[in-house]
Queue: 2 jobs
Job 1
Amino acid sequence: MVFNSDIFLFAFFPIVFTLFWLARTRQVRFAILAASGYVFYGYWDWRFCGLLAFSTLTSFVAALAIARTPSVRTRRGWLVASVALDLGILGFFKYYNFFADNVTAVAPGWALPALRVVLPVGISFYTFHTISYIVDVAQERVRPTRNLLEYMAYVALFPQLVAGPIVRYKQIEDDLARIDRPLGNDAIARGLGFFVVGLIKKVVIADHIGALIDPMLRSYDNLSPGGAWCAALGYTFQLYYDFSGYSDMAVGLGHLFGIRIPQNFNAPYRAVDPSDFWRRWHMSLSTWLRDYLYIPLGGNRRGEGRTYVNLMITMVLGGLWHGASWTFVAWGAYHGLLLAFFRATAGAWERFPSPVRRAITFLCVVVGWVLFRSTSFEMAGTWVARMTGIGGGNEFLPLALVTWVLLGLVAVNAMPETWDLTFSPRRRWAVVYAVGFFLAYLVMNGHQSVFLYYQF
Amino acid sequence: MVSRQPELGSVGITLITRPRARVGVTFLATIAVLVVSQVFVARSVDPRGDFGGRRFPKVVYDARAQKQALFQKYLARGPVEGLVLGSSRSMKLRPSELKEHSGLRFFNFAVDLGQGEDFLAIYRWVREQGTRPKVVVIGLDTEALASDRPRHWKLEKNRELRAMLEPDPITALAGMRMWVARYKETLSLPYVGDTLLSLRLWLRPHEDLLNVAFQTDGYLRYPRWERERARRVFDLDREIQACLPGQLKLFGGLGRARPERVAELERLVAAARNDGAIVKILMIGLHPSTVRFLTAKGTAVEAQTVINRAVVEDLKRRYGVESYDFSVLGPYGGTKTGWYDCAHVDETNATLMTRALMARVL
């Protein structure tokens, strides 16, 4: 189920919302949130609800065991076992075929059996939820909940279940503790405002750009230099508006259930260096990687050389998290190199005027998205070659795409982020939200599309 | 509206419990007003002829209703001796060219997404108008007998044509869903655009604003594409690419012929033959690249063509109909460039088709 579908907007959400606010006690509200998460998830494929439940239960039990055990060694054992189990499930479902294919290609004698493994939607996200919870409990950053329903509601919280943001338990712990409070006008206004802005970003901007560049990229070999640049820039904006739109909708839905989901984007294309970019793009993932991978690896505390190695490991694994493909690995490595280069040349870099640094960073990010969007190195190579004028084709370049790209350039540089807006609870603003929703629905009606990050 | 929201975790959500639902109620009430207004305007203007409105011009064609009106006018000016049935892919068969070859006065009654039941209903309706065609040409699309679709809702809402057919159990079950879908469709940007276009045409009639237009003999014209061709900006590749997703949707569930649909085609053939008419069935194909695309996507487009051939061969054997396999270009000498998009031939291919169709002595 996706947020921009009739079944969600006119059946699932109204029912869950009504039941939730009719319920008075915390337990019933947790139960409704948990159950709705499973329905939301099961609508895609009910068989994988079991996997979600298993992951939830094992991490719940492991966290309690960690909290109860005074022995450091036993705690570590629980932690390692639980994280390994989560990663094992993720690894099997997401990477088995990739691994098997590569083993077969490199050493045919060692060929692994090909399995028809279906990638469960959202597994990358909820696995990170449970891992962060266990690690936080083990490091005593959070006290484990003894309330299974509350924990199930946290893991299966439908606004963020399948495509994030990656919410840590401690970030919404207070809201969960006060889940039985009444709904306020401010929360409704924020909920509606965020949701409508996100919906507009998705169905009005991202989907229209996607519809223009997808046919071009199907015949990428035929891209003209201008077409290749427009496709790269178009995808740059499509991905941003798609994913940040989804995140805004998730935040809005969270508010409508009294839960404040954290910010996931902060004007990323205004970043002045690669490091700044990662502080602004998919913030919940980058901070997760920082806190649960980069810092445990030693971060920048073990010398300059090791810092670079840690950066590369973190970014390569971050790339691989997006999908079982060498292009994602290469994209991660590319950003690792950018971060390393920036770190090595930070002093000189700072001397450039801010607009120059911003433009260069943006350019580097756009090139990175070419790798990210490409389904093979051959495609990425051809696309980049066309961008540099090598072997240009004569692909038809839609004027509409040029317009969107120009508008996108202006918007990402001049428009406020959704989080910079205050959504007033006044009646006249409610009318504005309604008009926004209505217009977005006019655009999306009959053209349902999924979010790009559902595939990760 | 611009100011920063409180940082997470610093300030709790401000609870304004009275009046609690103020924003939500206003939001829902506004949505309700907007929806009702849009549905009311769309229903009143009725730009696509979905609700039987007659006051404003139709901008998206409902060939069934439009051609009924055209037919009655055409019949008033002289006898109709030949009838073309089929889908939009047969609409370019030009009655004047058919007359050149046969000497008979034809009317093109091909309708959008025409299927077996449409042909039967139209033939019966034409007969009820007091005319008896000497030649009936049936343009059979690859998917015209397929099992996955109910009757077209434009047929279902057309009382006169619907009355020509027996009730359809599948459609009866789907009726409510179609009713909802019809109203839901009014809440879309293209529908709003069509409503505005209809109002504009009402204020200042202008054919150039339309994508399609029918001549008095039922022949289809594509004003926009014709204009683009005249200005030499028409791009067939672009049109083919734009049209492929729709065809994929159309062919997605194909696999076998629906017995009721085949039976309705047979009833039509039997009735026409019984009336003494020559029946010519031509299997109309798609652009070769469309067939390649649909085959690559795993649809049963080829299998359905084979099924249609078998059905037509059976009718040929039992009723003596003439059959023409134009599902590929060769038999009529068509070209890959003689198309307007991935499924519709242009005047060049249509003329070649007509010539091949009428080559046989009547």
Job 2
Amino acid sequence: MSILNILTAPKSIIEISILWFVIYQMILFFEGSRAIQVMRGIIVLLLLFFLFKKIDFTVLNWLMEKIFGISVIALLIIFHPEIRQGLARLGQGRFFGTILKEEELESILKEIGKAAEDLSKDKVGALIAIEKSESLSSYVESGVAVDAKISSELIETIFTRNSILHDGGMVIQHGRITATGCIFPLTTKQDLSRIFGTRHRAALGLAEETDALIIVISEERQDISLFYEGKMYRDMGKEELVLKIKDLIKVKGA
Amino acid sequence: MMVKKNAQRFLSWFTTHPWLKLIALILAILLWLYIKEEIKGI
């Protein structure tokens, strides 16, 4: 039987699809974190290993097998924080998205909406990223860990000009504020209007790289904007913001 | 309307991180072939 026949057998397709899904989720989990460089190296080594196996380079193949044998322990040490984090999330059942109840989501969005409205009225700038299915943990590492219940008072206090944590972005994961003062990647888009500052560029950059929902409150224009998957929704009111977030969350089931 | 929305959702899955998905698929096929060969060897 040829390889093509084996590959197209229904059982094989199911097996390969499951493997594909698992590998893709693993890459996605590491993407954006510092561990991705190591992951890329491993992928290159794996591809070389399969190639040497196919061409039947016995010496190189033997060498690769030995390297992989030793590297199992090395990988456990290198990826120790990520493995722990991943297993913890798997245990919580939140690996592929949040499992917030409708009423929990409602109250969180109410608090965020109120904070956004108050901050814009007070001419205070803010940058808030809400995690959907793609992890924001790599950005959490760049800020200060908080882990607090979401409340409009806390959000407003953090973004007050005199606060040490007001610079950078706030990250919300699984219905809790997990970090503030986080650094988000800036967009490379050149066509973004000059009236938008670093805060908007960072929001767009993050929206291009992840599926997070990012709220920006401009201190100059006092407007509230929402960024999602590279798109910007401008000049939103409190109600409009909450409705739009709910709508976007429902689209892909965060 | 619902069908169109579902179709859009399905298509958007392919447009987000297409390169990562391609690399993952190549790795999955290679890994599957390797394991299949190893099992046969046993």
